[in-house]
Design brief:
Layout lengths: L2 E4 L5 H15 L4 E3 L8 E8 L2 E8 L2 E5 L1 H6 L4 E9 L2 E5 L2 E5 L4 E5 L4 E5 L3 E9 L7 H7 L9 H16 L8 H19 L4 H21 L8 H7 L4 H9 L5 H18 L8 H7 L5 H12 L3 H4 L10
Antiparallel strand pairs: 1-3, 2-5, 3-4, 4-11, 5-10, 6-9, 6-11, 7-8, 7-10
Helix pairs in contact: 4-5, 5-6, 7-8
Amino acid sequence: MSLILSTDALEPNEREAYWRHIMSDTFAPVAIHSMPSGDVAGAIRASWAGRLMIAEVRSTGQDIRRTPKLIGDADNAYFQVALVAGGVGRLSQDDREAELRPGDCAVYETTRPFRWLFDDAWDVWVFSLPADSVRLTEAERRHLSARRLDGGTGLTGVVSRFLLDLARHGEDLPAEQSEQVLAHASDLVITLLGQRLGATDAVRGARHRSLLPRIKDYIHQHLDDPTLDPARIAATVHISTRYLHKLFEAEHHTVALYIRGLRLDRARRDLMDPRLAHHTIAAVAHACGFHDLSGFNRAFKAAYGVSPRDLRAPTSKGDGG
């Protein structure tokens, strides 16, 4: 559902206060200076794809500031990607300033002071990602903010087109796909920043931190499927199987061992759950992704030093194989 806020229907003497209010209410509290008296005009068109907010903001020249006091007064924590569609804007954060022209992008955050300065009319798309959805450290965020990403270069153009297409069709996405879209948007932005800054180890590490939680979440959701394997997992997150194994090397175990450990732990908990006492051991094993009962029994005893049947002995009501 779209939200459209505009000064158009207001009397000239009401517009300035209203514009300050809707800018602060939509994004995060800001102070706005240098607006032409009695000649303020602006509109915000916002929509959501799950937790990702997409907004087009158009207005007259102004000086927008997020100050330490305003940050302390509110807890809005957004990692924002700005794509300039019209006009020229200067974005400042972390002792840097970037001059942005149509097609250019930059990132900034609402958790630290920033400033937008527009001398004349402007039109900017703002993609607001929850700060915790972007796997960057504090140092990396400070290093990457307020840097111009040239709209005339290849990768920036690709990312810009993706974001604008998302802006046009984000509301049509099924709700269950919203987190996946948010993850893809985050990954694209991190990849873009890595290209712009020479693909530093820090940015590569950020992509690693972004991928691994998504991979583990997918594994958790599909533990009961005996066909779950590294090739399928890699294809789902659009990486090679080799890279998937490399990600898990840092976790000090293989993909297969990680999956088996989760399945055994789930089976152990199910076997001890009195509410599931009427389920056979074979049924529990199958529900946890084990298709071979004898293999499950061996793996379980090796992991816990006791067989599934003995673990369940006190409530042996459903322990038939």
